[in-house]
Amino acid sequence: MSGGVLRLTGLTRVHGKGSAPALADFSLEVPAGACMAILGPSGSGKSTVLRLTAGLDEPTAGSVHLDGADLAGVLPERRGMAMVFQRPLLFPHLSVRDNVAFADRVRGVPRRTARRRAEEFLGLVQLDGFGDRPARALSGGQEQRVALARALAAEPRVLLLDEPFSALDARLREEMHELLADLRMRLDPTILLVTHDHAEAGALADGVAVLDRGRLLQAGPMRELYARPASLAVSRLLGGRTEVAGVVRDGRHESPLGSLDLPTPVPDGPAVLVVRHEAVQVTTAADPATDAVGTVVRARRRGMRTLVTVEVPGDGGTAAVDAELEPGQEVPTGRTVGLRLPVEGRWAVPVDGVAGEPVAGAPRA
User: Fold this and answer.
1) Phi/psi class of residue 33: alpha, beta or left (left: φ > 0; alpha: ψ in -120 to 50)?
2) Is residue 235 part of a domain?
3) Within a domain: 1
4) What torsion do the CA atoms of 27, 42, 159, 169 make, to the nearest 10 degrees?
């Protein structure tokens, strides 16, 4: 099995006359063998993209091409795609083996051959020996593995994943992430993954397309979107927290943090400085390499790490900067600290590019 090139062009879906589009002019290309994540909040149009791609809904406008072939009017089962939903949707009256063999049986494959192949795909998802079990006797994580095996048994050119791991606990979700990475190395499918979790998108996908209210905000490699968000909406959906209002003059962002160089040119004018909390380094106030000095006003534990908020007084007001401490590093509230803001970790979003979005001087809770 190998993946195909998926191209979505101008996809639009309007559910009823006079209603706002669930999806508007969405275009995206997924190279063969790549995993592309579609990221956005609930109601942003993520699942609509998958349903239109799979042929479960008809687009109001736009097209879906697979390896250059237009799929308009092609039935879902003939598109060379398979879909895994948030709920496994197994047949409870069938065994695990016969659930996985279902795709082959629908295609007319003899029962014995279909069952033999089912065992092979159960092995791929690490469920050897589970074939005789009834589907209703499985745990949630096992059910999702069976659903994935059933999808793979159809030998799809494109695998569509609609938040399939969101109902699992953290440990099972991580196991499924590792399993999917292993399957990609073995089978090389093209994957379109829908998720609302930017960490999951970062762990699984080669690229990400950020959706909000039915519109594509930005698409590209995850690292690029983390470091160079096109808008505050993109920064926030990717977990960005620090937003400092100011102005760009001659390639520098001026704000209560001072005058800071930017890594690449940005047009002069009002702009919001965004810095990933993972990039900020907390040091001593006396450190000569500090870019700003402020007071720790809040600390929140995140497993082995701690997220702190530092308030920095300056000309025109106070800026709030979030920083993630190194494992084992402790900084109590009330302490004066220095902040290093690496040049490559800074980015300024022009206010013209964030129309209608509030500009925060402090990160949101």
Assistant:
1) left
2) yes
3) no
4) 150
Same domain, 33 and 143: yes
Dihedral (CA of 31, 34, 40, 44) sign: positive
DSSP 281-298: EEEETT-TT-SEEEEEEE
Answer yes or no: is 249 within a domain. Answer: yes
**Owner of token pair 């450190």:** 287
Of 271, 283, 236, nearest to 347 by C-alpha is 271
Give the pLDDT score at 15. Answer: 87
The residues of the chain scoring below 50 in pLDDT are: 353-365
36: its two tokens = 């592309």
Q: In this structure, are 111 and 256 located in the same domain?
A: no
Question: Do 278 and 170 sit in the same domain of this protein?
Answer: no
**Structural domains in the chain (count):** 2
Task: Identify whether residues 288 and 171 lie together within a single domain.
Answer: no
Q: What is the pLDDT of residue 364?
A: 33
**Same domain membership, residue 207 and residue 133:** yes
Contact present, 222 and 256 (Cβ < 8 Å):
no
Angle, vertex CA 274, rays to CA 217 and CA 317, nearest 5: 130
The domain containing residue 33 runs over which residues?
A: 6-222
Q: What is the pTM of this model?
A: 0.87
Q: What is the pLDDT of residue 52?
A: 97
Locate 269 and state its tokens. Answer: 């004018």
CB crowding 209-233: b at 16 or more within 10 Å, else e: bbbbbbbbbbbeebeebbbbbbbbb
Give the number of residues written for the chain.
Answer: 365
State residue 361's pLDDT score: 37
In a domain, 295, yes or no: yes
Q: Do 60 and 208 reside in the same domain of the chain?
A: yes
Contacts of 11 (CB under 8 A, 6+ apart): 23, 25, 26, 27, 49, 52, 59, 61, 62, 63, 64
Cα-based distances in Å from 116 to 105, 120, 135, 276, 301 = 12, 7, 18, 50, 49
Query: What is the predicted pLDDT for the residue at 1?
Result: 66
Interaxial angle between packed helices 111-124 and 170-187, expressed in degrees from 0 to 180 and rounded to the nearest 10: 120
Q: What does the alpha-carbon distance between residue 34 and residue 36 come to, in Å, rounded to a whole number?
A: 6
